[in-house]
Predict the 3D structure of the following.
Amino acid sequence: MKSTRRKFITTTAALAAGTAVASALPMTDQKEEWPVVHHVFFWLKNPGSIEDRDKLVAGVKTLSKIETIKKLKVGIVASTEKRDVVDNSWAVSELMFFSDLAGQATYQSHPIHLEFIKNCSHLWEKVIVYDAIDA
């Protein structure tokens, strides 16, 4: 009985130690699942309008129905520390992830994206897009 209990305690301790070591390993060795990033910033025609901002946020969220978008994050300006390197002049951002460049190209001409532009372009004054792929 003592031998079985000792084996159980030793095995449990070894598993716990292995889990702790594995969780401490950096995640940088893992290949990114969605290597294409599409980040868009919108400036509103009426910068102080919460109603316009919320309409644009709702419009951007409709894009999540496009099958080639693997992940979509929609954001508004955060109240972070004011520094020279921080641009907080925009109102809404969308951050999308794609498996490949073909998926991003499909998104550009997708009917849902075109409908979003038709329905929401009157809300923005300026748009800047940053596209990147894993290096």
